[in-house]
Amino acid sequence: MTQTESRTKGNRLEEHLPNSTPRPEGELKELERVWRPPSGWNYITVVNNTYIGVFYVGAAFLFFILAGILALVMRTQLAVPENDLIGQDLYNQLFTMHGTIMMFLFAVPAVEAMGVYLLPNMQAARDLPFPRLSAYAFWAYFVGGLVFFSSIFFGLSPKGGWFMYPPLTSYEFSPGINADFWLLGIGFIEISAIAGAIEIIVGVLRTRAPGQSLDKLPIYAWTMLIFAGMIVFAFPAVILATALLELERAFHWPFFVAEKGGSPLLWQHLFWFFGHPEVYIIFLPAAGFVSMIIPTVAQTPLVAYRLVVVALLATGFFSFGLWVHHMFTTGLPQLSLSFFSAASMAVSIPSGIQVFAWIATLAAGRIQLNTPALFVLGFMFTFVLGGLTGVMVAMVPFDWQVHDTYFVVAHFHYVLFGGMVFPLFAAFYYWIPTASARPLSERLGRWVFGLIFIGFNTAFFPMHITGLVGMPRRVYTYPAELGWDTLNMISTAGAFMIASGVLLFVVDLIRNFRPFTNKSPGNVWNAGTLEWLPSGNYQTRSIPIVTSREPLWDQPNLPEDVEAGRYFLPGAPTGGRETIVTSPVDARPQYVVQMPGPSWPTVLAAVFTAGCFLGLTVKLVVPAIISGLIAIVMVIWWLWETDPGPTAEEIDIGGGIRLPTYVTGPMSHSWWAMVVLILVGGTLFTTLIFSYFFLWTVNPGAWPPDGVELPSLGWSALAAGLYASSSGVIWLASALLKRRERKGPWWGLRLLLMAAVPLMAGGLAVDFNGHWQTGLRPEEHSYGAVVYTVMSVQGVYVATLTLMAFYTVARSLAGMLDGVHRVTFDNTMLFWHYMTAQGLVGLAIIHFFPRLIG
Amino acid sequence: MRERFVTQILLMTAGLIIWAAHLGFVYGLNALACTFDFARLELFGMALTTLTIGVATLIALGAELLVLSFAVAGLGAMGFGGQEQYRFMGPITATLAGLSAVAVLWQGLPVLVVPVCAGAGG
Ligand code: HEM
């Protein structure tokens, strides 16, 4: 191309681009200033997703190494028969901790962390919509996880296996605090995972590059959307399960005790309702990595994009149909089990679709066999093998044969290691050039791959045979004469080979990984998606318009124009952090959201939340309460700065588009987050109601049990009336507030909020009193336990809303709330109406259902 | 042109939602029938539970087909709020409904061969 040609081409493009160059002086400086992370000690308050994302991935990787070390100890113990290196008790702790850490502290956080890092880059957003929330999720997880891990040094680790079946884990058979560590630790980390999921859902749907409509969304973003959606529907079940078991352990509320009308099967239902989707929750994002890496490796777009989206959606749904699958040998009616065999079959179709799309893409292009490609191929091999043994395990009679043998251990490591660890390493090698001044070494990378791949198959393939010849899982040793020694020795050798591969990877990191420099080797693989645009702490200089799924391949000059600031929002016009919020389907720009920056209270809130849970675990109740209160104060302090109101009228982002800097109502991202949070609450409540009905089927003739009276209907009607009227008052406040527009803060609002609080609390008190008066107590029977739990959950909402009401009043007193500047009020309002709805449903079920059947 | 995100997403995943409703229903019914021992009730010489599950399966299949034909016959364009979104979401809707129909069928068929409350342990 001659110089004139290139200039005319440039000019022609310029006419279409939203902003002209040269950009005003100082614009870039300002952008850099606004997004610069703090220095010195304040560094740990950083919230930019490119920093938090890297910390988060790093922490998850640390837990992978720690749990891997535990695995090596186990493998050393099992290398020879009748080994007395460690005893049964420690071995129990080891496999429980290994399984738990791998599943809860490594796998889910690792893929969530990759999302925090990658999603804004792929969508050309400046950050995720709630940067402080991701920082909070990270710190809570990191601190909580480390404390949980160190329990092994004090012999305090749980030992009930990673799925913690009661009655083994309840107060009778597991006194001491080992099981509490598991319950509170995991419950806590799940909450952090949910916080991340809310962030991801709103981020994927609302902060995309203009034009990046759903049909142009990178497959990875689709997988993360579905991943986060699955978390919203699956994790509440395990949070409820852990809460119930903890209530049983701490206060002897008998949910799982058969003599008192409970049932250990309830735990299994709740746990596996989460547990089976969990496998897909881990697998989907990993499949997302693969769907991004394969097109680059083959230098051609993904074949059958739409079909892959179909497969992802179908996997998301079908995997929930599998929960009973894990209980094949527990004696459920045979027909019920057939339903779930059917669901197992159904879920294999979408996995098959994805595998074929990958193979077709590889076949359509010319493969470059670089390190990411090797890991992807390793993944496909391993995963397909794991899938085959999965089909075998899904066949009911076969399952009775191999249940609880090493065959199952081999199967799930093929699925989990193959399905998630290989893609993760592929992702590390593939994306590190976007985060580091240097890429990792290709030469070392090949060695890392070779060691891990061969080591993995050496370690786990023989376990299929060890299982078939009868070696049970979870045994700390075995006698010599059974002929299991050679196989076990081979497995152990393989495990150490994996370890040497991982070690070599760490060496590669130490030599080449240089994050946070704002320097980058560029688009080293010639990839097509936006995370490969030139970027800094502010992500991209300007936010591009996207017209293709692989904009870097199809939109010429994109990197140069983006970097020169010719696209949207090339500066920081409000003087603070901001990004464009787009519509969920077509990604049309809707407004510019102002985002908060670094903050101490966020970090402290996380630390003290962890402290509170830890205090509860070791039964230091007073310090726990103090810690909890500090955490609450910190959260309030952090939130205080996050609803800035309309600071500027409208902002020109370029191309004649002027956007507001503040919106309220269903368009605002904060409304969306609240709705997702309500979905989480709704799921938790639904699983609780499921538990209520499940316990009823356990006690069909006695619901409520003999000698227990239901409160008179008058009480429940009064409670319902109080809840409903509190919501009515809030509704009135909202309507009146709207009419006042910008007339400034208003005492009437404060009055109405303060009137609604006692109405709501009164509803709860009346309901509670009704049951208490009849003599019903939670400790005697599962009926009382579940009724009091429904009220306790309602109590948590009432307490939270009381706090929110005071907070909202405080905002009003501070002059930060009026008819326009009202996001804080809207959040309180939405949550309030949800509380009322949940309260009414709970009342209806608890008071009417027994009368209906009685 | 206004987006109707919630409607569009519900429409797109309607097939899967029907599948989930069917699963919940047949599983729940089966569990209740065995717990409360009404599995032995008969109507026209067939076990009442079997019959109900059969009918539920037929209804679910009908609903899947309805979604499928709705998506295939460009009718969908209206539901999706415009031609452009339909081009992407229409085929997804149809494929998901087809896939779910197969899954529903798989779930419904065992009823014909497996006795309702036989214990799995045999
Ligand atoms: C790094 C290589 C790994 C090795 C050498 C390894 C080895 C082991 C061993 C020896 C056991 C105990 C078997 C028994 O006594 O029953 C085990 C259990 C388990 N592993 Fe791994 N593992 C590895 C990676 C992983 C990964 C990546 C995951 C998940 C993402 C995982 C998840 C589990 C689970 C869930 C259990 C079951 C724990 C229980 O029985 O409660 N492992 N593994």
Protein traits:
heterodimer, A: about 850 residues, mainly alpha, Cytochrome C Oxidase, Chain A, Four Helix Bundle (Hemerythrin (Met), subunit A), two-stranded antiparallel ribbon, 4 strands, B: about 120 residues, 6 helices, 2 strands, about 75% helix, binds protoporphyrin IX containing FE
Total helical segments of chain A: 24
Named CATH architecture of the largest domain in chain A: Up-down Bundle
What does the average pLDDT of chain B come to?
80
Largest interface: A-B, 40 and 43 residues
**Unreliable segments of 5+ consecutive residues of chain A:** 1-14, 326-331
Overall CATH class of the largest domain in chain A: Mainly Alpha
The helix-and-strand class of chain B reads: mainly alpha
Helicity range of chain B: over 70%
Number of self-contained structural domains of chain A: 2
Structural category of chain A: mainly alpha
